[in-house]
Structures are given as C-alpha cells and as structure tokens.
Design brief:
globular; alpha/beta; nine-stranded parallel beta sheet; De-COase2_C; 375 residues; 12 helices; binds pyridoxal-5'-phosphate; single chain; nine-stranded mixed beta sheet; Lyase, Ornithine Decarboxylase, Chain A, domain 1; TIM Barrel; decarboxylase
Length: 375
Amino acid sequence: MENSTPIYIIEEAKLRRNLALIKDVAERTGSEFILAFKAFALWKTFPIFREYIQSTTASSLSEAMLAYHEFGKKAHTFSPAYTDGEFDDIVACSSHITFNSLSQYERFHHRASSCSIGLRVNPEYSEVGTMLYNPCAPGTRFGITADKLPKELPSDIDGFHCHCHCESGADVFERTLRHIEEKFSPWFSQIKWINFGGGHLVTRKGYDIELLERIMKGFHQRYPHLKVIFEPGSAFAWQTGPLVAHVVDIVNDRGIKTAILDVSFTCHMPDCLEMPYHPEVRGAELVDLEEATKENTYRLGGNSCLSGDFMGSWRFKNPLVIGQEIIFEDMIHYTTVKTNMFNGISHPSIGMLHMDGKLEILRHFGYEDYRNRMD
Ligand SMILES: Cc1ncc(COP(=O)(O)O)c(C=O)c1O
C-alpha cells in the first residue's frame, strides 16, 4: 500500500488506557459498563475489549449479529422500533431486549421470552443542549413517560433503560438521576436492572470519577437489588487515534485559501458537519472567519462535490504544500462507523498502531467496496 493513502489509526496503547480506566470505574461503582457499537464497531479490536469488558449493546440486527458472532456474547439490544421480519433474528443474538414503547412491547414481547425484557423510559429531563442529540426534547420519539406506565408492570419486564446524556460529566448524571428517581422509583421494586444509557464520558480528562462513585454508592444503598448498567460508546474510543489525510491541491477565492484534501468531511468526518464541531488539527490553530485570508491560514476542503464540504480556518506554522500530511485528532469514535462512499470517493484505510510501534492495516477499501453497495 502506498504511504499516501489516508488512514484512520487506532492506537492500541490509548485504547487499552481507556479500557483499563473503564474497568476500574465499573468495579468502583459496582456497575457493568458495556460497549455501544453505534460509536465504535471495529471488530478486529474485540479480542482486546474482551480482556476488559463482558458485553456490548446493539441498536439493530447487524449490530446484534456483530455482538453474537464477533464479540462472542449476546447483545443488550435497544431499537427505536423493531420490525416483524427482523425481530426473531435480533432475539436470537440478544440477551436483553428493550422496547421503546408500550405498543412495541405488546406487539413483540411474547417472541422475546428467551431475553431479559426492558422498557425505555423518558425522565423528561436532559441537559444535552444540541437538539439533534437530546432524547428528551418535547415531541421526542424516545421512551415512555411516567404518566403512561401502568402502576403494575407486566410480569415479564425486568428492567428500565434510560439514555439522556451526551459527552456528559458526573455532575450532569447526578442532577439527571434525581429526575429519574423522582419519576420512576415507584416502579423500582418491580424491576431487576436499570441501564443508564450512554453519554457518560468517564475517560475525558477531568471527569469526576469520585463523584460517580459517590452517586452510585448512594444509589446502591437505596436500591440494593438493582443491577446497574452503563452503555457508553464514545468513552471507549475517546482520543484513541487520528485520521491522517494529505493536501492534494490548494485553491484561492477572494483571498480565501482552501487546501483540498484526499478525505471528505461529509464522507469521512460527518459529525463535523452534523454536530457541528471543529476537529483539532495537529500543529494548527483554529482561527476566526475574519482571519481566513491571513498568512498560512487555510480552510480545509473535502474531495466531494458537496459545496459545503469544508471547514475552517486553521493557521499553520508554514505554507501548506501538496502531499503534506494533515492530521485530524480524535477521529475514531462515531467517525469510523458513520463513513459513507458518497461520490465513490476512496475510503480511508483503517489501521492499528500496536504497542510495539508496528502499524497493522486492518482494512483497505477499494472499488469493489463501492460497487458492492450498489448491487
Ligand atoms: C441508547 C443509546 N445508548 C448508548 C449510546 C452511546 O452514547 P455515547 O457514545 O455518547 O456514550 C447512545 C448514543 O446515541 C444511545 O442512543
């Protein structure tokens, strides 16, 4: 493979550091942490994950199959709506099935008797500011509010599932938990487990692990019979590696210089446009729009035909040159699962930087991958 192929590089040392920390947090908080595939599903790394965690969570048939066949354990599955045609196959790959609504429960629960059954509940409280990521916004399609739950739960319901965080700290969880308990504790004596969803960014620098420990100590004292599960995704792959791209051309319009790269924001870093957030670029400083025409300052542009496939601007130490590496930091979680082949643009390879410094190419993509999606 040529050196110049763009590549996502997951760094084993950083992944193991996150996994070790999560294992420690799980022990200290008396809870189980499981991996949410929606954020990370590079299955060739699963043997490493299995050294630290036991289970995973799926949100579709394919993710449930990945859990069963590649991770080697049935999944904790939640989907906003199961379909008739897929439900039995999902059940076959799942240990836990959570229903998003009472109507889905009514329709399918008799076919899920081999699983532990849960209901997703909506505490009507979330501090997630970006509406795209707020599952408790008015009109949400997620979860059952307390006023809709029957006083006596059906006897086959074992658990509650509640997801209302996004890259959140323990302080947010503390405040949210008050609402969860206020709304749903009347039912806690009828269930065996509670899943507090994802969005707990325990591996972020500064996350207050002691606070989480105290919160969970109190929770276990109040409800000693409840098994607690957290299912973060981002926390596992947080800051575990970059996307390495290259400058292919430099164009200039009205003094605004754009370095066109061999990657695309819309194809290979879609959260940058969707979330939106500005990624960190190694050796460059993000500057305001007014500074776009200044020296050594560039927009970075994708190689798709979408006009908005650019971000900027970044100031570099020196002028950019064709062939130069542009390194986008922290491009593993969500990015690697969300990429697409719009325009047929070459997809970056996926590599793993091992502890001994060796780079293993896990996957290289080519024309066949593009073609096979269009059969
Ligand atoms: C139900 C559910 N669980 C877990 C996650 C993972 O969240 P995160 O990757 O932010 O930890 C999400 C993210 O959207 C989710 O919707």
